[in-house]
Amino acid sequence: MAQNTLPTVQTGRTYTREEALALDASDPLHHLRSEFIIPTKDHPHTSKDEACIYLCGNSLGLQPNRTADRIAAHLGAWATKGVSGHFKDHEDSKLPAFLHIDDVAAQRMAPLVGASAGEVAIMETLSANLHLMMASFYRPTDAKYKILLEGKAFPSDHYAVESQIRHHGLKPEDAMILIEPADQTAATTATSQILSMIEKHAPDAALIVLPGVQYYTGQYFDIPTITAYAHSHGIAIGWDLAHAVGNVELHLHDWEVDFAVWCSYKYLNCGPGAIAGLFVHEKHGQVNEDATSSGAVEYRPRLSGWWGGDKATRFQMGNKFVPIPGAAGFQVGNPCALAICPLLASLDIFELTSMSAIRAKSIMLTNYLDELLRKTGSEDSPMGKAELYRIITPAKPAERGAQLSILLRPGLLEAVMMDLEKQGVVVDERRPDVVRVAPAPLYNTFSDVWEFVDMFKRACAKAARGSATSTQNGEVSSAFAGKSDKGWSQIK
Fold first, then answer.
1. Would you state the pLDDT for residue 290?
2. What are φ and ψ of residue 310, in 5° steps?
3. Within 13 Å and on the Cβ side, how many CA atoms surround 448?
4. What single string gives the DSSP state of each residue in 35-89?
5. Is the pTM of this model over 0.85?
6. Do residues 323 and 121 lie in contact, with contact meaning Cβ atoms separated by under 8 Å?
7. Are 98 and 76 contacting, i.e. CB atoms less than 8 angstroms apart?
8. 280-306: pLDDT as tens digits
9. Which among 346, 341, 370, 344 is positioned nearest to 358, based on CA atoms?
10. At what angle do helices 355-374 and 446-473 cross, to 10 degrees?
């Protein structure tokens, strides 16, 4: 991957639109924005030709321009070659033979997660992969049967852990241990608290499952420290990297992570419900065949399927399963070649730069967002001195990814979100009072951030004035009149 040198953000900020434009002009990754289709503002009060301010890549990344061409090429190959497309190279496009497309995607994906090609598989969905990994790594005994899980884990992770426990005939109330902040008023969980919980439950813990970046707060967990501590107590650990892959630098092999799973529709920009990926450390993917006449094969227990079997014998249709060494041996069914095409298009863009350069710009963007949000109380600020919001994401750049989560004063969220939507701003809400904002370094700009903060502060002040007036009059604000109490984030 190519290397880029990012400019150092100068001190003595002016926090003006002109400064944001100057930062964009000196950004060596700015040209990558043209690789994406930026949605336009689709509202009668704005110009339909004007790009919206899209800061929602933590929920769904934008579509690369290359995606449609990749998909069209695949459809063309399928149409003209039929079943022979499985085995023949497609000289008229960049696509590999259907049979090998998942291997090619895994090889290209591996550098983004700090793995060897053999440690990555492109397959299934995140939740399905989490189940497949727990089927292999959660082997409860009478003595060690607990799973440690972050208390505010994404619901699907919670469901998966709970169902695995029940599948083994155990009770979640006995076997599922939730790791939560020691201070119940805190939004984030300190590394020391996680280590303390590991030590406390080490005698009977069988597995730990944690997020790399917490979806609600944007906290970036200390993966190497926590992983090493788990291993020092003899506990396997897996990571949900849905909000980490393509967002922060990862070194899964060097950190000796046992397994990890991720989706591809957030920072990897592969589209709604895109094909997912998993990592299995090489020490868990070894396959040993007995050279004696018995022909026994030793490998880690798993739920097996034919796509995880040795390619050399796959089409002999025998009933003896010999897994492919590495992560590929954990595959079950053949992956959808069409679904892999958007991932290949996305990886084309990642290969134009490096994760170190992407992360460096991300830190600059998110720091800029943080500074602008905290700059309140000046005479020209529509916020005045009233605290209408606070940032609940860790302040240290090393402890967060691209996302900042903003906790609003109770009662403001609906009006603020309506105001932002009217102005063509796309961010994410989490009821009852949190707005999640994620400037993605591949396509977002410093100008995006400046414009968002300017409109956000005004929206907060406007919502607060409306809320105060309604409270004084004993009325419901017009922003809430006739509205359901279910936001789009709840529907999601």
1. 73
2. -50, 125
3. 25
4. GB-PPBP-STTS-TTSBPEE-BTTTSPPPBTHHHHHHHHHHHHHHHHGGGGGTS-
5. yes
6. no
7. no
8. 999 999 999 875 556 789 999 999 999
9. 346
10. 30
